[in-house]
Write a structure and sequence with these properties.
This is Cbb3-type cytochrome c oxidase subunit III. InterPro entries: Cyt_c-like_dom (IPR009056), Cyt_c-like_dom_sf (IPR036909), Cytochrome_c_Oxidase_Subunit (IPR050597). By secondary structure, the chain is mainly alpha-helical. It folds into two domains: 33-139, Cytochrome c-like domain (Cytochrome Bc1 Complex, Chain D, domain 2, Orthogonal Bundle), CATH 1.10.760; 140-234, Cytochrome Bc1 Complex, Chain D, domain 2, CATH 1.10.760. It is built from nine helices and no strands. Helix 7 crosses helix 8 (194-203).
Amino acid sequence: MIKKYFYLLSLWIIAGFVGVLGAATLPGTATAKEVVSSIARGGMLYDNWYTVLKAGKPKENHPLWPTANTQEKGANTWRCASCHGWDLKGDNGMPGLTKLKDADPAKVIAVLKGKKHAMADEFSQQDLTDLANFITKGQFDVDKYIDRASGKAKGNKENGVIYYNTICAKCHGLDGKKPKDWDSVMGAITNESPWEALHKIMNGEPGEVMPALRAFGPQLSADILSYAQTLPNKR
């Protein structure tokens, strides 16, 4: 009886140990549930895909760019944000993408690979997946975090200063006047284009080492933006 008890106990311990090993994830192994990094990279592709992919800048206007709009031309007309807006609600007379929130990413990929968008030759399958994940899984109501009329962030600047000074200031300086080769400064940029600034805080800057803070949620990014808007707007 005692031998049988210890035999069953041994089997139970071994089964539990094997279960733990099976559930463990090896370092560096992505899981199906972890899509935040894909969404953030998709956000950078949405911002400026040819910089992310180190591809040549398109010289001609995108086929879908409105001919009446002559303010932008060439490469900028190929950036997703130029047509669909930093808030994904549409810009420059082009439609928004808010209806695609929670949609099947495969639907977005099919559109991107179609003749009108002509991205099949530029994007790998991973690129298409990341951008589709951003459009379908990465959307949130930006109006909850930026006042539409004033452009002011609806954040806690007292909380934002903590994160700005410990993360952002390493590259942008405590006064927001770095890097020195910038055409502008943080205070001016975040007030002139707060929706673009929030997008970059969430997803990172294409071609730069700026970290994406998407994993911490939009409120933290709004807090940082709120503080950044108080920084000097001139050098």
